[in-house]
Write a structure and sequence with these properties.
By secondary structure, this protein is an alpha+beta fold. Helices cover 40% and strands 12% of the residues. The protein is built from 24 helices and 23 strands. The strands form seven sheets. Strands 1, 6, 7, 8, 9, 12, 15, 16 and 17 form a nine-stranded mixed β-sheet that branches. A four-stranded antiparallel β-sheet has the order 2-3-4-5, with no helix packed on it. The protein has a two-stranded antiparallel sheet with strand order 10-11. The longest helix is centred in the middle third of the chain and has 78 residues. The protein starts with 71 loop residues before the first helix and ends with a helix. The N terminus and C terminus are likely disordered. The structure holds adenosine-5'-triphosphate. Adenosine-5'-triphosphate (ATP) binds next to helix 8 and strand 14.
Amino acid sequence: MTTAIPRASRPANGPPTTALPALPVPKTRQSTGTATLAAGSGATTTPRSGLRAPSTSCLPSSASAGSLPQPRSATGINGAGKTLRKTVSINSFPQPPRTEGRVASLPPSPLSGGASTRKLKTPTTPNYHLSNTPSLLNGTGDGKLVARAAGTRSSDGLFSVASPPQSRSSSAQDSYSTSATQYDEIGDLPSSTNAASTDGSNSKRASKLDGKGNVVVSVRVRPDAGGSDHAKTEGEWLVEGRKSLIAYRGKEGGDYYYDNVFTTHDNNSRVYDHIAKRLVRRVMEGYHGTVFAYGMTGTGKTFSMQGTASSPGVIPLAITDIFSYIRETPSREFLLRVSYLEIYNEKIHDLLSMPTGASIGVAQQEEIKLREDSKRGVYASPLKEEIVQSPTQLLRVIARGDQARRTASTQFNSRSSRSHAVVQIVVESRERVPGSGSGSENKRSGMLPGGVRVSTLSLIDLAGSEKAAETKERRTEGSHINKSLLTLGTVIAKLSGDKEKEGKPGDKDGKHLPYRDSKLTRLLQGALSGNSLVSILCTIQIGSAGSVATSNSHTAETLNTLKFASRAKNNIVSHAKRAEEALGSGGDGGARVLLERYRMEILELRSQLDTQAKSNTKKEEDEEKASLLEVEKAREKEAEYRHEEQMLEMQLARTALKERIDHLNRLILSSKSIGVNSGGSYSSLGMHPRSSLVSVRSAATTTGTISGRSAIERTTSMTSSSSTIGRRTSSQRLSGGAELPAVDDEDSAGEFGDGTASLTAQNEALQADLADKNRYIATLEKRLLQARRASSSRASVGLGGAGKGIMVGEDHSVSAVIKEKDEEIAELRAKLEDKDRMLAALRTAARSRDNADRVESRSEVRTSLILDHPPSPAPTMPAPSPAPSLIRQVSYLRKRTRSVDEMSKMLDEMIQDRVESGQIVRGNRGSVRVANDRKTDATGEPVARPDTLQRSTSLGESSPVANLEA
Ligand SMILES: Nc1ncnc2c1ncn2[C@@H]1O[C@H](COP(=O)(O)OP(=O)(O)OP(=O)(O)O)[C@@H](O)[C@H]1O
């Protein structure tokens, strides 16, 4: 009995709810084996060297069942790539057997003959014997009886295996290895032990015919935790490894013979060699194989199946052998995929799809159900299958599943597996027949496709049966475990036992067997019903640790296990056949044959690649052409666009020019009226520059010759000519009669309007036109300047003297006339003022004279003046030029003694006379002006008629000048 040793490294029971560790933590059980590899840390199933843990990048992260395999060139099985060679040296695996006879010595089929010489007695009998059964698994399938050499017991009383000591040796890389050459010798067990059998050999030989030889049942005794090394004689127990015998001398005791009995001294490697090595080889050859460990909790099932880093168990050793076989068999190509599930509380979980996050529980997983297929049998779905290409990769995948598996502490095992764990390795293989292809590239494609064989290796670590559990959870788990194990036992008990007892051969086909009572039996249905080679390892512990009650309970469990093993050996009949080779989707495996599917896919992809390459080439050419065309079109468009832009610019320039010309024309028009009609012709404004020039010149030269008579005519012609402003005609008649070409006629269909001229020509023409316009504008500006100057000079001339008759335009002529008259009036007024001053002077003088006369003849004059005429003011100023005549007139007046009033009267009469004679005209308000028929002299001054008094005076004023001059 062992005492449970708590290990903190194992997670608590129940579904994992926290993040799983990065690497599996191996069970740190004390190894009693003599493993050839040194202890290493890290992965449980990873050897220390030679199978160094691969980098993460080498592992398929999440390859699903249908995922394509990695290219073999990178991590290939037969030709590992550089990366793989660095991480896993395929050469570190055992070398292939050199002797060809080894394989040939294997039985061709389980049904090829060979009488079973072993017989299992039921546990109820005191002695239980197993005879050597020729089978696929012991190398005696060919019917040859296996004889055990006498006297080959080891020193501990166990059978020594007849394999040479060097058969399991460390490789150069110090990696563990299993020799592929071992199984023949293992099978060559001495038959002499059969003599020890209490039964007759006839019945034993007959058993091989029913295929029982394809079932290997072994019992392994776990050493005591206390270090007791008395497995051979532990109380009432007797373990005879060499005899494959376990004998119990207590109550219900008896001798139990099995195919293999392993003592506490046997290590995992030896166990593997005897229970699984041959089976693994058969699986590689196309048979289905199932290995499972059965036993009470804590007896070493997991230890045997998984092992430790220092003592790898069945699973890692099987993996090593699988790849060794692949390396040894270059004539075939292989594809491996692996799945890992557990049955926990009667529910199936995919251990490879377990979420690793702490927050993600198992409950989120999709429920996996068991389905049945005529070709595949019973299988779990959906289940993740990962394609593996190296032992390390495969080990890592399984280690990942191990981490996800539920474990808990039980009474007998601190890290008890609380679920049934099933590793399934599907092996697809196909014959490689070199075809016509040559060269390394075509090496694979040149292979003629053969049929694909599909076989499955199932490695099952059952949960341990437990009588009593402390917690409710443990009890629940335990009840499920016990129920499923009980169902397994029942099924096995009924497999052939019923047939033997009741003679119902029909029971074998499963119709009446309770496979469906548990997930475990349902999943094992194929193996139990004979489709698979089967190897059962039952683990027991016969130590006497603990109390008497515990010991008794333990003994009962151990006996149950032994009975189970005996029934399994006795009842399970395997008719395993090599899997048929399937071509394409037909045959065994059907669509599951990935190798064929991949081959077809590769072919299809290749053809697609070729087609795509061709179409791509054509497409590329077309695209290139299209792109060239597009570039060409884009260039053309760009050129067109540029041309349009240029045209637009030119148009704008032209418009601007036109506007400017019009503007200038308007300016010129307003200042050129002098030149207009100077010769009686129309204005040439808006016409050719030369015409303007002519007009301006004409205007300039004729300024001084304009007669006053033609003022009204000019005004009229000006109005007429202004109507021609802005008109564009092809030609204009100048005042000189010359025909001028049109300057700017956009409506005309000239060189640019016919649309036939090239763009360049148009461009040049337009540029020439533009230059011409510029010149024209410059000329116009000059002319305008000249015209302004001329205009201002003419205006000054026109304003210089009244009556000169120079008119500027219509408005100027009118205003000039008015101005002339106004100036005349002003002049007359000035003269009149002179006359008035003269008159006033005359009066003053007259008054002075009157005063002098009065002094001389005061008495008489005074009397006469006072009586006849009122006194009037006498002029004080002497008359200027006309003074002599005035003096004469005054003296005359004096002489005549006339008064001033009389003189004024006389002047008025004189003016009246002039008016009547038509020399002057009297206005409405009494003003007077000279009549229009006056003539001007050469200087432009009006010439007064000798007989006309030229004066302007207001009514009531008189001027004596005319009379005086006359
Ligand atoms: N042959 C052996 N040599 C040395 N140690 C062993 C052997 N068999 C089992 N042990 C140790 O016993 C303990 C329990 O073993 P293991 O977990 O394999 O038992 P189990 O049958 O798988 O139990 P459970 O059914 O509860 O999972 C482990 O610590 C293991 O190392």
